[in-house]
Amino acid sequence: MLKLREEYDSLKSSYEKLLSEYKRTSEALLEINLALNNSREVIFLTDKEGVITYINPEFTETYGYTADEIVGKTTPRILNNGVFSKEDYKTF
Length: 92
Description:
Layout: H1 2-38, E1 44-46, E2 52-55, H2 57-63, H3 67-70, H4 75-79, H5 86-91
Antiparallel strand pairs: 1-2
């Protein structure tokens, strides 16, 4: 019974540490999300294959695409469409 109690206490301690880390990570992600959404710079994120996974509101304001229209699309196809300047396209 003592061994079972020790294992329980160890698991409880591990759980509490994980929960604390989860809360810190969640708070940090919320702060990052707030910063991205309030930035006056155009920001978009892609995965390794160049598929757009996120755009901020400034992207929509500048280029006219909503997240529903662009998230999930491949970067070169979206960026090389005449909306972006040739210099911007080369940069991206």
